[in-house]
Amino acid sequence: MILLYIDPGTGSMLFTILLGVISSLFFVFRKFILGLKFTFSSGKKKSESGKAHEYLIFSDSKRYWNVFKPICDEFEKRQIHLDYWTASPDDPALSVPYKYVKTEFIGEGNRAFARLNTLSADIVLSTTPGLDVYQWKRSKSVKYYVHIFHAVDEALGYRMFGMDYYDAILLTGAFQGDNIRKLEELRNLPQKELKVTGSTYMDALLEKKESTPEPAHSKTVLLAPSWGDSAILSRFGKKLISALLSTDYKVIIRPHPQSSISEKEMLEELMTAFPNSDKLTWSFDNNNFDALNTSDVMITDFSGIIFDYSLVFGKPILYADTSFDKAPYDAAWVDDNLWRFEVLPSLGKKLDEKDFPSIGKLLDDLIENPEFSEGRKKVSDTAWQCKRESASLTADYLISKHKEIEA
User: Fold this and answer.
1) What are the backbone dihedrals phi and psi of residue 320, each rounded to the nearest 5 degrees, phi first?
2) Number of structural domains, the chain?
3) Is the pLDDT of residue 349 over 80?
4) Where are the alpha helices (DSSP H) in 187-304?
5) What is the 3-state secondary structure (H, E, C) of 250-261?
6) What is the pLDDT confidence band of residue 322, given thresholds at 50, 70 and 90?
7) What is d(CA 176, CA 178) in angstroms, rounded to the nearest whole number?
8) 223 and 167, same domain (yes or no)
9) β-bridge mates for residue 57, sequence order
10) Same domain for 64 and 182?
11) 207-232: string of b/e by CB count within 10 Å (b at 16+)?
12) Euclidean distance between the first and final Cα of the chain, in Å?
């Protein structure tokens, strides 16, 4: 008896192809059924649910609820119906008792994308990059796709082609539009609509920070890296953690959520070598507020949490000397230095590996140094515009665009 073996990579590819074929056949069949309904309903065509979704939000992870909650709250306040689809079964949105916002778990991975690829909607809003590049395909029954940033960072930080096939991008600051236009020109893409609406989650974070006093705590350093071969834990993990534990600081390590997926083995090795203790805490909470609020200084690399910590909490950072590989990112198409690396010296000090033995003194000096307050203000004015107005402006834009589509 001959046993057939298919390696995981090939199996995944075949499954994706099969899913695409099934989705296409489903769409053709659905189109045929809708055509019959169109014929027998005096020319009034409807979706399989009786009506296309007017406004629909898709979230591929519960960690983006902080971006979407202010928007959902705004639609609820205005008594306008909104659908919220999530690929996380434990998304906090699912437990909110909205009247006008309908939340739904649509499955994980390819199951979610199968729903999205045959979706009928007027406007879809999402943070998810890679539309029409990976498994998520533009549905012929969706009229307009809108992308919203989940960080007040530049547009070049996405994996390649991440935003190319959206119709519109909501910006946290006008500066993000420059590189979007450069990419469109380089790739011969039609211009997307760009609209500055600010940052919904930064506004909400600021509001929470202002209403929540910082609790009394011991001197604490937060280690909050990005993920990948260029990030802190991959390059300096054991050396840096050992150096921090030799100081009189308590240490909170908050890995990037993607680390638990893409570099699980490395993370498990570090957690085994440095388990939770009175001195060290590993933080994986969906909400990062407590970690940000109860620490005095942060060590990071090129993670977007830089801006949460600096601009909302007004605290200093040490940014690690890591080499950033631009190859997988849209940044590879542009010769300019990444904006985030240009502004880092305005927000904190650079950490070299040779500084590890004296890192305690470096942290002390940084906390007591007032020189970065002006730099934080300049970065905030550039990257975080429309402060405290983002949810309202985002809703205004979506409602206005829907009226335009209907007209």
Assistant:
1) -70, 150
2) 2
3) yes
4) 200-211, 232-245, 259-262, 264-273, 289-293
5) EEEECCCCCHHH
6) low
7) 6
8) no
9) 84, 125
10) yes
11) eebeeeeeeeeeebbbbbbbbbebbb
12) 65
